[in-house]
């Protein structure tokens, strides 16, 4: 049998050892998500503190030429454990043959559960077809998270630590994080450790943009700042070079666009305040976290080049590019992001 990606978390949460399938296949392009899901399946089936004899790990090489080994391991129950889990890493022909043999020989209730953890599989993959078509098996796909899913995960994780998060901090964090579930969880753990343990009975603490920058800031952020400032100042050559540097490091086009959008949203707000009579120094306080002293003159120069109306048009371009990039392949999304940013850079000097 098979589930849709959005159904996986709920299914794993309800998994019970007494009613578990004989085989669970966890697969997908999100390697972190695959690993985290496999860990959750193991915990749900064996419990937190299980007897080591209840758990057997096999790899592809162990099954090569031994299709019956999986069935033998699954049938050999531990002396003192009620349940046993056989965990396989990989999905080559030997694994597929072993799984096919195991399901064919299985009679009645399974004495153990077999858990297969692997990368993405095509619908025509023998292993995936076996898991999806057999009623005693379950296939769990893991795909990269969408922005709304990342936002929900951020809130749930921080609320569990008795923290709330500001809207701008959420934008920064969502833009900064990858879409790999494993990486996201590690980064959120870093952020929670930076803020410290908070009494669950106390009033919820607040995560700010400054907290995100301090806990998760990296060298790549400087490259993003250079790209955004070059775009906002209309420096086409510098913007082009900054884009090339980021692409060379495998940077996400979605992240570049999201950070540019946050910058222009804040610039739009600051310019609106200035057009309403607010002094420039006070309007600059709209930027959170506060601008580094080296960036401040660059942003002041941007405020002389842009109006709130021009910023609104730049935001329309960025929003359209973000939408287009969501369904595009990696190379195409990079090209679309680059075109949008360079288009805005040309508009800066008009």
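Sequence proposed for the structure above (350 residues):
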């Amino acid at each position: 049998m098979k589930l849709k990606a959005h159904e996986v978390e709920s299914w794993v949460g309800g998994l019970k050892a007494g009613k578990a399938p004989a085989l669970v296949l966890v697969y997908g392009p999100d390697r972190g998500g695959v690993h985290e899901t496999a860990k959750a399946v193991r915990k749900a089936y064996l419990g937190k503190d299980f007897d080591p004899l209840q758990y057997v790990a096999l790899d592809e090489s162990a099954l090569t030429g031994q299709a019956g080994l999986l069935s033998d391991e699954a049938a050999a129950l531990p002396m003192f454990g009620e349940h046993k889990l056989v965990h396989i890493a990989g999905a080559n022909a030997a694994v597929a043959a072993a799984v096919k043999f195991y399901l064919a020989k299985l009679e009645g209730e399974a004495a153990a559960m077999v858990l297969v953890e692997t990368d993405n599989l095509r619908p025509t993959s023998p292993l995936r077809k076996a898991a999806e078509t057999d009623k005693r098996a379950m296939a769990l796909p893991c795909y990269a998270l969408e922005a709304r899913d990342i936002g929900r995960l951020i809130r749930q994780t921080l609320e569990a630590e008795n923290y709330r998060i500001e809207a701008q901090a959420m934008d920064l964090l969502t833009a900064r994080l990858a879409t790999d579930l494993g990486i996201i969880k590690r980064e959120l753990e870093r952020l929670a450790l930076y803020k410290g343990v908070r009494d669950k009975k106390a009033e919820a603490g607040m995560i700010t943009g400054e907290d995100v920058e301090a806990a998760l800031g990296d060298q790549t952020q400087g490259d993003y700042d250079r790209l955004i400032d070059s775009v906002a100042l209309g420096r086409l050559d510098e913007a082009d070079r900054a884009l090339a540097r980021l692409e060379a490091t495998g940077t996400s086009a979605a992240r570049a666009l999201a950070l540019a959008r946050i910058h222009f949203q804040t610039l739009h707000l600051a310019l609106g305040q200035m057009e309403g009579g607010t002094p420039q120094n006070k309007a600059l306080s709209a930027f959170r976290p506060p601008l580094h002293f080296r960036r401040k003159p660059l942003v002041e120069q941007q405020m002389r080049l842009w109006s709130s109306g021009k910023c609104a048009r730049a935001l329309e371009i960025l929003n359209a590019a973000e939408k287009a990039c969501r369904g595009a392949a990696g190379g195409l999304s990079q090209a679309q992001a680059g075109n949008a940013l360079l288009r805005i850079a040309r508009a800066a000097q008009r």
